[in-house]
């Protein structure tokens, strides 16, 4: 079932959205200042291309310890991200989710877009893993 949902997701906007996340990561990399957020954008792009059967977890909880992306540094990076990019990317995912939720077949896609909205608010310190 997840394979079918992923294929439908790709056809009905997931491929375009994933490409936009890849482009955003490339633009961040070119600016040099955006390098701390480049890998997060590309990680999100991978999730956007194939979201069903995967989940977003806290990296510190998953790996069992703190790293550079957690704690004060991660919080500061997430605040900067939120101000300059996160809030309007999250808003776009919420608006898309609202439109998708109007149809019965769009409800699973709306849930994934809401997960993407939450991830877009604070991507640093998150990890995308396969569901057990």
Short description:
This protein is mainly alpha-helical and 132 residues long. It contains 5 helices and 2 strands; from the N terminus they run H-H-E-H-H-H-E.
Describe this structure in words.
The chain is mainly alpha-helical and 132 residues long. The protein has one domain (2-130). Helices cover 71% and strands 8% of the residues. The chain contains 5 helices and 2 strands. The protein has a two-stranded antiparallel sheet with strand order 1-2. Helix 1 (2-30) packs antiparallel against helix 2 (35-49) and helix 4 (71-100) packs antiparallel against helix 5 (107-121). The longest helix has 30 residues, at 71-100. The protein is globular, with a radius of gyration of 15 Å.
Cα Rg: 15 Å
Principal-axis shape equals globular
Number of separate domains = 1
Number of helix segments?
5
The fraction of residues assigned to DSSP E strands is 5-15%
Trace the largest sheet across and list its strands.
Answer: 1-2
Number of strands: 2
What's the helix-strand series?
HHEHHHE
Q: Give the fraction of residues assigned to helices.
A: over 70%
Which structural category fits the helices and strands?
A: mainly alpha
Largest sheet: 2 strands, antiparallel
Low-confidence stretches: none
Termini distance?
15 Å
Residue-averaged pLDDT: 89
Summarize this structure as a short list of keywords or feature phrases:
single chain; 132 residues; mainly alpha; two-stranded antiparallel ribbon; 5 helices; 2 strands; 71% helix
